[in-house]
Amino acid sequence: MRCSLFFCSVCASSITIAQQPPTVNIIPQPVSTTIGSGSFVPSSATTITFDTTALKDEAAFLGDALHATTDLHMRSSLGNPSDKNIIRLSLQKGTNGIPEGYTLLISAGRIDIIGTDQAGVFHGIGSLLQLARMEQQGSTSFPCLTITDHPRFPWRGMHLDVSRHFFPVEFVKRYIDLMARYKMNVFHWHLTDDQGWRIEIKKYPKLTKVGAWRSGSEFGPYSDRSFDSTRYGGFYTQDQIRDVIEYATARHVTIVPEIEMPGHSLAALAAYPELSCTGGPFEVVKGWGVFDDVFCPKDSTFTFLENVLTEVMDLFPGEYIHIGGDECSKTRWKTCADCQALMKKEGLKDEGELQSYFVQRIEKFVNSKRLRPDLSGGRKIIGWDEILEGGLAPNAAVMSWRGTEGGVAAAKQKHNVVMTPGTHCYFDHYQGDPAVEPLAIGGYTTLQKVYGYEPVPEELDSAEAQYILGAQGNVWTEYITTPEQAEYMALPRMIALAEVLWSPKASRNETDFVRRLESEFANLDAMGMHYSKSLYNVGYSMRGSKKRGQLNVDLTRTPGLGDIRFTVDGSEPCDTSKQYFSTIEQRGNATIKAAMFSGVKKMGNTTALKLDFDLGTGRVITTDPPPSEKYNTGGPFTLIDGVSAQARRVSTQWLGWTSPQVTITVDIGSEQSLTHIGIGALEERYSWIHPPSEVNIATSSDGKTFSDIETVRPPTDAHGRIEYGSDKAASARYVRFIVKSHGKIEDGFAGAGNMPWTFLDEIHIR
Question: Last residue of a domain, which of 581, 611, 641?
Answer without folding.
Answer: 611
